[in-house]
Recover the amino acids of this structure.
């Protein structure tokens, strides 16, 4: 094993531990699925759907019906976005070796990431299936992300593709 390999293992381990610690702090809230009244967003063009709390409002759909933006009124930087599209490029070696780290309750595999930025934190689900890419994300102010993590995670688990 060479130095680059050891460096890669150390970097991956450090990132994994950091992500685990950050997410571990997010599980300490009182979100209960049964306490929320749900609506379902359904996209007929690309055949995907997911639940969202009934207090969130849908912003105007894009004219091409690729997706939706949902917001909670009077909460800056708090939103849910979801859309689908055809990949711009054909699969490359880089995308063929993608490691899936998430499985929806429907059994669809995807990649779930959390991006911690200075002002906002974003949880993203990306699914590539049948020449389409599906994207779902939840975003909140970084300081409030732990309040919404379990809600966002639940919604990502319930994401469905009906094709």
């Amino acid at each position: 094993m060479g130095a680059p390999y050891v460096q890669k293992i150390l970097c991956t381990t450090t990132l994994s531990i950091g992500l685990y610690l950050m997410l571990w702090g997010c599980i300490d809230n009182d979100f209960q699925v049964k306490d929320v009244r749900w609506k379902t967003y359904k996209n007929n063009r690309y055949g995907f759907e997911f639940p969202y709390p009934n207090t969130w409002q849908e912003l105007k759909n894009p004219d091409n019906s690729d997706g939706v933006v949902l917001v909670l009124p009077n909460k800056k930087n708090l939103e849910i976005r979801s859309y689908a599209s055809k990949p711009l490029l054909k699969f490359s070696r880089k995308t063929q070796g993608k490691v899936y780290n998430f499985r929806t309750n429907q059994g669809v595999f995807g990649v779930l990431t959390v991006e911690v930025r200075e002002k906002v934190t974003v949880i993203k689900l990306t699914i590539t299936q049948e020449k389409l890419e599906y994207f779902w994300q939840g975003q909140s102010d970084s300081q409030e992300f732990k309040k919404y993590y379990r809600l966002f995670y639940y919604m990502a688990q319930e994401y469905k593709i009906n094709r």
Summary: The radius of gyration is 17 Å. Confidence is low (pLDDT under 50) at residues 17-28. The first helix runs from residue 3 to 26. The longest strand covers residues 120-129.
